[in-house]
Amino acid sequence: MRSGEMHLSLTIENVKDFILDLFLAGTDTLSTTLVWAMTELIRHRNVMQNAQLEVRKDLNGKIRIEEGDIHKLPYIYQVIKENLRLHPLSPLLVPRLCCETVELVSYTMPVENWVEINVWAMMRGPKYLEDPEIFLPKRFEKKAIDFGLANFEFIPFGGGRRICLSKSFALASMDLWLAQLLFYFDWELLGERIYPKRIMTSLCASIVIGGNSDWRLGGLNHHRLGFEDIKGFLRIFH
Ligand code: HEM
What we know:
Layout: H1 12-26, H2 28-43, H3 45-58, H4 74-86, E1 96-97, E2 102-104, E3 107-109, E4 114-115, H5 119-122, H6 167-184, E5 185-190, E6 203-205, E7 209-211, E8 216-221, H7 227-237
Antiparallel strand pairs: 1-4, 2-3, 5-8, 6-7
Helix pairs in contact: 2-4, 2-6, 3-6
The protein binds protoporphyrin IX containing FE.
């Protein structure tokens, strides 16, 4: 940049905006998705058990799960995909502005028209999926999905030029964190009067969509590991 190769000058405002972008796009997104994933898992105990079985069987004997272990956990990856399908963080993506007039099916979209893309509805489309309202990670067992490069019916990270810059990082982080949550702890709903099927009845929405949070989960240290063994992991979730 300093050598002038890129023919653009970067101001301190540009740098600040960029860092702000990363904070805004990179914090709530991951934590909200993880909360949705745990919500679905507590509502579907069989899926939680299968995922725990996978991570505990395949990583048996290890105390720490590392990035390199993730590829051994295909079921957890399916859980993440299914979770993103049912709970896309930006249900309408980022709005687009038409640069030219476009004819699409029987509609004319004039130049400078704003376009919202309803990803939430697309990913629940019965045309593309069986039982689209059901949380069923196994549906991704045989279906190869490339997140918005060719499969435009499945675009939780958006698509085209404005696709999420951090798709790979976000997927790897969610994989690792979910695997750790399931590896280290056994999960139960706290409180006497809450039933798994009744949580998540309301949503709070802005550009990012999240669930209600008037319920709490408690995790029991499954491997009876000492604080020293899991403190690195706990620090992330503090
Ligand atoms: C579960 C995690 C995440 C999801 C579901 C997600 C989803 C999205 C979506 C839907 C868009 C808009 C794409 C479009 O309109 O086509 C987007 C844009 C963006 N995301 Fe993510 N995101 C996640 C995590 C992250 C993280 C961790 C970062 C950064 C560290 C990040 C950085 C960005 C940036 C900078 C953009 C704007 C790209 C542009 O407009 O050119 N995202 N993300």
